[in-house]
Design brief:
Blueprint (H helix, E strand, L loop, with lengths): L1 H21 L45 E4 L7 E3 L9 E3 L2 E3 L7 E3 L6 E8 L14 E7 L6 E6 L33 E9 L2 E2 L5 E3 L2 E6 L2 E8 L21 E2 L10 E9 L2
Antiparallel strand pairs: 1-15, 2-5, 3-4, 4-15, 5-14, 6-9, 6-15, 7-8, 7-14, 9-12, 10-11, 12-13
């Protein structure tokens, strides 16, 4: 009987003793128990299709190998006048494109649907005026007609210039206020990097999927997959107008301030 009692005591005490030995040092937590993987990892591996190999630009601003270069500083071969489709007549000098307000808006010869766009712009250091009359321009992500018809991403001197918030630089004009004001001083180059997803229409013009846009201004997120309510209008509420593909348009605004400049414009078409 004495031996049985002793054996039971050992059995009861052993797990406790073992538990005590397994406690981690003070200040440390015990590592989770390792579980053996279950199933076959190959069942979740996708090998086709293989992404197309492209060569990125030497810098983040330089066009990658699959980009369509719209302006590289040398000429306006990719652009026409909006009003009559004649060759664009803005001023090209020193690798820079400067607005000629007398000749009006220009747009790309090609039309696009969904794309990634890079564009750099500069407000002149001697800029004058205030509010909307200070370095006003815009990039229309889809030009749907003459004049200012389409979807405008606003360009303006917003470094120290009070105006309505949905009309400052990096706004989707009169629709979406930028998340922050990332403007640089006049005389300094600024950049827009844009992801544009075009609206989708049925045959009768009904919108089945509205337009969306994401914008980085000088590397800062300012529009986060914003859903547009229609074309951007100076007066009235936005409405959609059916289109398939459209050019990208640059605005020659009629304000009296000094003209702005552009450089390094390229686009990548997206499926």
């Amino acid at each position: 009987m004495k031996n049985v009692v002793f054996a039971l005591a050992v059995l009861i005490a052993s797990p406790v003793a073992g538990f005590a030995r397994q406690q981690p040092p003070a200040g440390q937590t015990a590592a989770p128990a390792q579980q053996a993987p279950r199933g076959d990892p190959k069942l979740t591996e996708v090998w086709e299709p293989v992404p197309k190999v492209i060569t990125p630009g030497a810098t983040d601003a330089a066009p990658p190998s699959d980009a369509i270069v719209l302006f590289d500083g040398s000429n306006l071969d990719q652009w026409v006048s909006v009003k009559d489709k004649s060759p664009a007549k803005w001023i090209v000098a020193g690798g820079v494109l400067t607005v000629d307000k007398k000749t009006g808006n220009i747009e790309t010869k090609r039309s696009f649907r969904n794309y990634q766009l890079h564009l750099e712009w500069r407000i002149p250091s001697d800029i004058t005026g205030q509010d909307q009359a200070r370095g006003n321009s815009g990039v229309f992500l889809a030009s749907t007609g003459t004049g200012d018809a389409g979807y405008e991403l606003q360009i303006l001197d917003s470094y120290d210039n009070k105006t309505y918030s949905n009309g400052q630089a990096a706004s989707i004009y009169k629709q979406s206020i930028p998340l922050v004001n990332a403007a640089r001083k006049p005389g300094e180059w600024q950049a827009y990097d844009v992801i544009w997803t075009a609206p989708v229409f049925t045959a009768d013009g009904t919108v089945t999927s509205p337009a969306h846009v994401t914008v980085f201004h000088n590397g800062v997120l300012v529009q986060n997959n914003f859903e547009l309510k229609g074309e951007t209008l100076y007066i009235g509420q936005p409405v959609y107008k059916k289109y398939d593909t459209a050019p990208i348009k640059l605005q020659a605004h009629g304000d009296k301030s000094e003209p702005i400049s552009f450089r390094n414009i390229w686009v990548r078409e997206l499926q």
